Amino acid sequence: MDAVVKLVFVGLVSLVNVNRTTNGIPPAVLVINAQSEYHVPFVAFDNTAVDMDGAPPETVPGMKWYSRVTLLGEAIDGFADGPLEAPLGSIASVNAVARWNGKWNGDYVPQTGRPKASAVAGLVLLGKGSLTATCPTDATWTFQGKDAKPNQAVSYSTRVEYTEFQKATDQVILKLSPLPGSPLTNSRTLAFRPRTQNGDIVIFVGNGSMNDFADLLRADCPHRRCYDVGHHFKYLHKIVNGLDAVPVPDASHTCHGDSTGYCGPDQIP
C-alpha cells in the first residue's frame, strides 16, 4: 500500500475561491486569527510517526505524542501549480447560508498583496491536488440570524484533506513567510519526514481552543453527543463585508454536559 501524504485543515479555517469562481483571488485556506489566548493557530503532527525540522516544536498539552508549531501570521506555500479538484458540497458555504453581497474584507482578502497578520494567522496558498471533505458532525445544523438564508438542517464536514499535491512520499516541505504585520521578520522552512520507511505523513493545519485539540488532532473522526451554538462562525464571517448580523449554526439537538459548537471549516464563495 502506498504511503499517505496529506494536509488536514481543521477548526477556524476558511477555504477561499477553491473553485476559482472569482478572478484575481488565488485558491487558498485562511487560518483565522481569533485573537484570543484560548485559541492557537498551528501546524501539528504525530511525533511518533513523523519527524520535523525547521522550527523548535512544542508539545501539545495533554497529548505528548503530538507536536505543534504556532503560526505567527505566515503564508505557507511551496505547492506546484496545476488543477485543483474541490468537491466540497458538505462544507458550509457563505453563499448558501448568508445573504452576502459578494464583497470581501480587504484585511483578509485584499485585491492586491497578502492579508494582514492581525486578521490571518496563516495563509495556505494551494496548488494542484485534491480537496476532500471528511468527518461530518453527528448533529445537523441550521444557520440562524438576521442575515441568514432559509436553509435546511445539514450535517457539515469538520475537516478538509489536501492530497495529491506531490508525487514524493519521503518528505513534505512547507515554506513559511511573514505576512504584513507579522512579528516575524524571517522566513522559515518546515521539513516533515516519516519515521519509518514508507510511513505516512499527516500534517494538521488550523486554529482551535486548547479544549478542542483532542478532537481536532485525533486520527479518526471525533464523535460528540452534546453540542452548542457555533459562535466561532463570528470569526469566519469577518472575511466578508455586508453582513450586519453574522449567521451562526445552531444544532438540531443539544444535551447537558461537555459541549462544543460546530466551528468550521467554511468556504467562500
Order of helical and strand elements: EEEEEEEEEEHEEEEEEEHEHEEE
Which strands sit side by side, in order, in the main sheet?
Answer: 5-16-15-8-11-3-2-21-10
Task: Give the structural class.
Answer: mainly beta
Share of helix, binned: under 10%
Can you count the helices?
Answer: 3
Quick one: biggest sheet? Answer: 9 strands, mixed
User: What percentage of amino acids are in beta strands?
Assistant: 35-45%
Shape: globular
Say how many strands there are.
21
- The average pLDDT value, as a whole number, equals 89
Backbone CA Rg? 18 Å
Q: N- to C-terminal separation?
A: 37 Å
How many domains? The number is 1
- Low-confidence runs (pLDDT<50, min 5 residues)? none
Question: Can you tell me about this structure?
Answer:
The chain is mainly β and 269 residues long. The chain has one domain (5-263). The chain is 4% helix and 39% strand. The protein contains three helices and 21 strands. The protein has helices at 94-97, 213-216, 233-236, and strands spanning 5-11, 13-16, 28-32, 39-46, 50-53, 58-60, 63-70, 74-77, 84-85, 92-93, 120-125, 129-136, 141-144, 157-163, 172-178, 188-194, 201-209, 227-228, 248-251, 260-261, 266-268. The strands form four sheets. It has a nine-stranded mixed sheet. Strands 6-7-4-17-1-14-12-9 form an eight-stranded mixed sheet. A hairpin with a 2-residue loop joins β6 (58-60) and β7. The protein is globular. The protein starts with a strand and ends with a strand. The mean pLDDT is 89.
